[in-house]
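In this section we walk through a basic example: taking a raw amino acid sequence and producing a predicted 3D structure, encoded as discrete structure tokens. The instruction is simple. Fold the sequence below.
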Amino acid sequence: MIKVLVAEDMHIVRGALVALLRLESDIEVVAEVASGVEILPAARSTAAEVAIIDIDLPGKDGLTAAAELHEQLPGCRTLILTSLGRPGTLRRALDAKVSGFLLKDAPPDKLANAVRGVVAGRRMVDGDLALAAWDSVDCPLTVRELDVLRMTAHGYGTVEVAARLFLSAGTVRNYLTTVVAKLGARNRVDAIRIAGESGWL
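The resulting token sequence is shown next.
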């Protein structure tokens, strides 16, 4: 039996995923969690072999959790299941060393097959999305610029961003000015839109 952990914050979606997986004779759901911070402890305590993770989770996003799993529990494969089918998002997932990347609108049988594939050591990625990622433009922003923009996108003001990232408010403003220029955006809001649509945030 393949031991699977499901991390999804929407109860109905999580329930549907669990019900779907329980129809498979070789898959056992050993844990269900609703936030990113629960993933590593749950995977550790249940000896999960595959963690099916949504990207947009409260507490800690799914890609950060996937990277932690890769580092601390390399025996647990990670399968990202998301509605964010953008090339930039896939690139971020691959950077986090995920084992698979599947869209939520994929046919139900693809999920079980992806679980079996990643356990067998294969990388399971939607073909069309992989081709789009191959052709996509790399993110022009540095890690620090992305941190500042991501926090701004979450509604933090300049002073709050500065405090959280141990920077001065002036430095944060400079980063945001650079981001707007690099992305050819009209303002910060437009920069957030561009980066979000590209899957960089």
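Looking at the output, two observations stand out. The CA atoms of residues 34 and 71 lie 21 Å apart. The chain has a mean pLDDT of 88. In the next section we compare this with other chains.
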